[in-house]
Every structure is written in C-alpha cells, then in structure tokens.
Give the backbone structure.
Amino acid sequence: MITILGIESSCDDTSAAVIRDGVILSNIVAGQLVHEKYGGVVPELASRAHQQNIIPVVHDALKQAGITKEELSAVAFTRGPGLLGSLLVGTSFAKGFSSALDIPMIEVNHLQAHVLAHFIKENVEDTNQPPFPFLCLLVSGGNSQIILVKSYFDMKIIGQTIDDAAGEAFDKCAKVMGLGYPGGPIVDQLANAGNPNRFKFSKPNIAGYDYSFSGLKTSFLYFLRDGLKNGPDFVEKNKEDLCASLQKTIVDVLMNKLLQATKDLKIKEVTIAGGVSANSGLRDAFVEYSQKYGWKIHIPKFAYTTDNAAMVAITGYYKYLDGEFCGKDIAPFARVSI
Ligand code: KG4
C-alpha cells in the first residue's frame, strides 16, 4: 500500500491531500481572501497566509483521510513554477515533515501535476483515466498550452501563449469592466445570461499551435472606451453580453488550435486542465467538439481544475512507483517548464 501526502503552495491556495494507491482519500484547500481588495495576488501576503494555513490544512487532510502521519509512504510537494515565497513554505514544510517521519520527499512540477490530475481515482473501481497518447489543453492564470502526453512523465508542449494566458485575458478584461477578482468565474457567471454573438472582438493570427491573448485584451479595452462615449452606464447595461461575447472569443481561439492539433497528430483523446477549465463555455465547447469530431474527452472534477494538492499527490504517487525521490538540499523554482 502506497500512501502519499501532497502539498501545494505555489500561488494563493494552501492545499494538502492524501492519495492511497492512486485513490483520493482527502483534498483540503484553504483559499486566501486577503488578496481580493488588491485585485490580484500579493506575493508577500500569500507567503504569510501559507505559513498560517499549512499546519491546519495538513492536519485536516490526514484527519479526513482517516490515517495517522506514520502511515505515510512519502511526502510530495510542488517545487515550481510559482511564487518563490509561497513555494518556499510548502518546500520547507515537506523537508521538516519528511525528516521527522523519516520518509522520502518527492518534488512535483505544478504543470505536470495539472495534467496528471486526470489520473486521480475516486475509488478503486474508477477506470475513467485517459489512455496514452492524449492531448491536454492546459489553461490557467499563468499558462495556455497544448501538451502532447505520451506517458506519465513524457510530455511535450506543442503550442503555448506567446504573451498573456487565457486566464489573464479573462481576469484583465474583467478588471477593466470593474468586476471583482479573479474575474474568470465572474465573467463565466454573467456570460450565462448574455448573447455571445452580440459583440465581435479581434482574434489573433499566430502560426502553428501557439496562442496570443494580449491583442484581445487591448481590443476589448478600446471597445469599452468607444462604448463609454455613448454613456457612462455602457458597461453596466451590457455586461452580460460583453462577458458572453468575450468568453466566446477566448473559447473559439483555444478550441481552433486544439482542433488543428488533433487533426494533424491524429489524436482523438483530448483532455483539459488548469483553472480556466472550470469555465462552462469551454466545457460546453469540449462536449460539442466531442460530438462533432468524435473526440473522447476527459474533463476533471471542478475540485481538480484550480490549484489543489490532490494533483500533487497523484504525481508523487507515480514518481514513487518510479523510485524518483529528491534530497533535502532541494530548492524551489519560480520558473520551470513542464
Ligand atoms: O490554475 P489556476 O487556479 O491558477 C494558476 O494560474 O496556476 O487558474 C486560475 C485562473 C484565473 O485566471 C481564473 O480567473 C481562472 O483560472 N478561472 C476561470 C474560471 N475559474 C477560474 N476562468 C474562466 N472561467 C472560470 N469559470
């Protein structure tokens, strides 16, 4: 029996999870409301909140899993990418914990973990995992990538954003509309009541499978500026249609490149990961494309889309099987590729 404790502290969520032989036993996430009034994550405040949260979160994860810490086989932690101060909290905790219990430590790449979230089993009978090879659209606040996944640790980025990520496009456009932070979920909610075909925004024209979202952000900003000339309540009066049209544009851009990749590589197993994969427009598009193009799609549970330690624990589990442990001299990385 292999029991892994996962620790995630790369940004503003402190999370701990326990996975036993690939099956989830617990996944506790403590968010940080302290950033809301700043309209974005404040790194120093995030590190401090992680310090406060980490012990209770780990305690709760063990309790909910119904195990003692002595039953753990190893502790897996996010090494990067992320905010350095935040990563240091999880890394230092993992070092102390593994030393005290005399169990191995496993470093986890946060982006790989998002992809491997698809392998978390809800119970021993759960066989809903994607077969290799598959394509994964990884879309979050910091990344927009199309990844070719050949095996658990053989992943290749075949396309990525050359500037802003899809989540950033949602968040920044929400900010100029005066909506809260993070803007993605708010845009999603308002879009449900709006007309996605009312407004047209320019789409990027980038070669290959790469993305670009900074032009959309600028065109959205100019569009609002022109609209406001017709009256100061332009945004308020049209926010549902603005959100629906913006969401449709982002989803179309993401899906067009993904479709091209599936055709070129002749791969029909398609998955989605990262915070933006919680978006209902994107999820609907996945279902629509699966019907239209015969894709076999895998959409993770909401709890495994945004930052969570379950994905860290499952990655740790597969590394444990490969005997891939790290030393106590390990340091976190703010920037690292998949
Ligand atoms: O993966 P994640 O939790 O954090 C990292 O970036 O690592 O992703 C956060 C991003 C934010 O930009 C947030 O606005 C976006 O995911 N997001 C959404 C939705 N839920 C979260 N964007 C659009 N629609 C959503 N429902």
Remarks:
- Residues 11, 140-142, 167, 170-171, 182-185, 188, 274-276, 278-279, 306-307 surround KG4 (CB under 6 Å).
